[in-house]
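Exam review. A common question shows you a sequence with its structure tokens and asks you to describe the fold in words. Practice with the pair below. Do the first one on your own.
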Amino acid sequence: MAAIPSISNLHLRYRLWIAELNFDINVLRIFSDHLHEALQQRAETGMQEIMTSFEKKFTDLRGEIDELKNEMHLAKMQLASHVREKEETGVTLNDTTHASLARQYKLLREKLDTLKKDVDAV
């Protein structure tokens, strides 16, 4: 397995990712408000189904975001514990946890980007 960044760099990376995910939660709320407004302005048939579909996507993504944030927070706490125990901030870890979190984060970013394009198309 390839070496991953130092503990302090990983800790910072998780903090940044968590901040971005918090931002994404706000974006999902704004998208929901935007679609509710669009629904009120349009009398087209099928708009309610579209809104219901988007609301389900928003709810599902919010759940994924919350779960990933929790996992990152736990990983961040484990890193801090490791530093306290070892008192070495330059230690490099080979950890499947980071690879898994990075992969999950990347997939979530792709889902959010796709959702943004879908909302823009409405």
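Now try the second one, then compare your answer with the model answer below.
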Amino acid sequence: MVDFLFGNGYEAFLVTVALLAAIPYGIYVGLKRLATRITGGPRNGDSRTGR
């Protein structure tokens, strides 16, 4: 079943590693944005996006 969904075991491994890295990063960014809104801090910490 996994091989059918991801192609083969190696690709399934890569998807798993990517998800294991992306989920905590998303939580970190979300908490950082929430803390900025709660504390009313400056929103220009990222020169690329201005947030």
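Model answer, second protein: The two ends are 42 Å apart (CA to CA). Residues 9-39 form the longest helix (31 residues). Full marks require stating both points clearly.
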